[in-house]
């Protein structure tokens, strides 16, 4: 596939869609903002581009022929070379049932149609800024109670069972585990996880804490995140949540964020512990990117 480029390209976007008209429209939007664009309309071309270079952002349709989208997102986060790639999912007009699952497995943004060119570009720029945020200095491996977190492989386990977290939830947990028992304000958590110029809602931190709680509960064990009303959150053993605090964040409504009207799919018009096995774990779980886009039998 031809590489389209304009002068003074700012960043490389790998665009993977199955519809040629959609590809052309999105390429035009990106090129007018001086992005360099790699285009793919099937999983084979997508694998080839990922093997040849590391894009700054991946913008793709999960319905791409031959693509296991969940495996792709997970593998990109586990592979050292690609873990900072901004991953944006293009939703369909009928909706994607696995949108929430893709966000939990490493996607940064889910963009549901209809969306305007301005909305698309804003979401891409936000994802790029977030991906380029430097990780705070600190230990690679953390442990608390029955939890373990490996920042080198983006792996979280509880009682030996792997927990799949989205990038925001992973960074929230990492920040909480660095200073367990301490109460962290919402402003502090926002500063630790989101870029300084990010525009987020008043309850965004609460929503992501709710997702994190749900993921930690999914493998059993006592509640670990305590809510301090009007202050923030802390990591502690056998925390309790009042119903008034739990209800606003017990459901995830962020997987179907509609953009501005005007652009539709063309088909419509702390405990710290040394990590002795981190590198081995990374090698064992990071499969070759040449195979991650294949459909699981």
Can you describe what's shown?
- The chain has 297 residues and is an alpha/beta fold.
- It folds into 2 domains: 3-131, 3-Layer(aba) Sandwich (Rossmann fold), CATH 3.40.50.2300; 141-251, Winged helix-like DNA-binding domain superfamily/Winged helix DNA-binding domain (Arc Repressor Mutant, subunit A).
- The protein has 10 helices and 14 strands.
- It has helices at residues 20-31, 43-52, 69-78, 99-104, 117-131, 167-178, 186-193, 204-217, 243-246, 278-285, and strands at 3-4, 12-16, 36-40, 57-60, 86-90, 109-111, 141-144, 147-150, 155-158, 161-163, 184-185, 225-228, 232-235, 271-272.
- A 6-stranded mixed sheet has the order 1-3-2-4-5-6, sandwiched between helices.
- A hairpin with a 2-residue loop joins strand 7 and strand 8 (147-150).
- Helix 6 (167-178) crosses helix 8 (204-217).
- The two termini are 27 Å apart.
What's the structural blueprint in terms of helices and strands?
Layout: E1 3-4, E2 12-16, H1 20-31, E3 36-40, H2 43-52, E4 57-60, H3 69-78, E5 86-90, H4 99-104, E6 109-111, H5 117-131, E7 141-144, E8 147-150, E9 155-158, E10 161-163, H6 167-178, E11 184-185, H7 186-193, H8 204-217, E12 225-228, E13 232-235, H9 243-246, E14 271-272, H10 278-285
Parallel strand pairs: 2-3, 2-4, 4-5, 5-6
Antiparallel strand pairs: 1-3, 7-8, 7-14, 8-9, 9-10, 11-13, 12-13
Helix pairs in contact: 6-8
């Amino acid at each position: 596939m031809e590489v389209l480029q304009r002068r003074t390209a700012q960043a490389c976007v790998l665009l993977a869609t199955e519809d040629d008209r959609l590809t052309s429209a999105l390429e035009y939007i990106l090129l007018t903002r001086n992005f360099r664009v790699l285009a793919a309309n099937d999983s084979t071309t997508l694998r080839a581009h990922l093997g040849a270079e590391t894009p700054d952002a991946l913008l793709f349709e999960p319905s791409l022929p031959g693509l296991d989208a969940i495996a792709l997102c997970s593998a990109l986060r586990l592979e050292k070379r690609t873990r900072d790639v901004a991953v944006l999912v293009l939703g369909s007009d009928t909706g994607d049932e696995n949108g929430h699952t893709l966000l939990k497995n490493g996607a940064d943004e889910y963009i549901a149609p209809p969306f305007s060119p301005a909305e698309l570009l804003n979401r891409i720029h936000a994802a790029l800024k977030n991906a380029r945020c430097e990780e705070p200095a600190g230990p690679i491996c953390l442990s608390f109670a029955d939890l373990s977190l490996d920042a080198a492989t983006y792996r979280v386990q509880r009682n030996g069972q792997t927990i799949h977290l989205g990038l925001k939830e992973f960074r929230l947990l990492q920040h909480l585990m660095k200073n367990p028992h301490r109460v962290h304000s919402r402003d502090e958590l926002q500063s630790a996880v989101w870029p300084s110029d990010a525009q987020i809602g008043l309850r965004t931190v609460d929503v992501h804490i709710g997702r994190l709680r749900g993921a930690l509960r999914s493998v059993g064990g006592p509640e670990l995140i305590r809510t301090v009303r009007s202050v923030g959150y802390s990591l502690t053993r056998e925390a309790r949540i009042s119903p008034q605090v739990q209800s606003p964040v017990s459901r995830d409504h962020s997987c179907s964020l509609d953009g501005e009207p005007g652009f539709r799919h063309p088909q419509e018009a702390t405990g710290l512990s040394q990590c002795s096995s981190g590198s081995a774990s990374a090698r064992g779980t990071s499969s070759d990117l040449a195979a991650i886009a294949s459909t699981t039998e």
